[in-house]
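Please, does this match?
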Amino acid sequence: MIDTSQLLLFIPAALALNITPGADMLFCLGQSIKWGPKAGVAASFGVSTGSIIHTLLAAFGLATLLAATPWAFEVLRWAGVGYLIWLGIQAIKSNGVAFDSTKTVTSHAQENGEVKRLIMYRAWREGTIVNLFNPKVAIFILAFIPQFVDPAHGSTLIQFLIFGAIFNITGTTVNSIVALLGGRLGKIFTCNPSLSAWFQRVTGTLFFGLAAKLAFDRR
């Protein structure tokens, strides 16, 4: 059983950390503006999926290996850098056409419902990959959550998983709210092709910036 005092300390701490703007939040905002608020929310659930996997790895001790093995950390980090660069190139190449989702998702998706499902899946998938390819998430979870785990209050594994779930719930909530607010901006871009083309270039630059941050930030 988790100590109530620890829980009362953990929830506001987790919320404060999740409110702080970071790569995941900016990614969800970008997806929301680009494809609409539902896509932004789907991206936030993708980020949460990646974070849950990081939490499970940390809970079962695998993230400790990542923290202690420099080459494994570097491989994962540079994979994330490469993926963000790829996203940036795709955004710039689209030249604003991406806001017309019925033309860019796939030529085989004739039904509007199918197009929307493909957009949701794509946003979720990319959110998951962006989060998974950021080893700092695993290191952060490994460093943050154990501070609140107390062996005197039962299974440390169960406590770790509960705290991880709370952290993910607060993060998903925050990112979803940001995505819903960002979706309003997307409507403006859909009505202005030149503005949407400009935003795609900005989005691409943002992805490049996130890639640079991941590449050059110290471990």
Remarks:
- Confidence is low (pLDDT under 50) at residues 97-110.
- Residues 70 and 140 are 16 Å apart (CA to CA).
- DSSP finds ten helices and no strands in the chain.
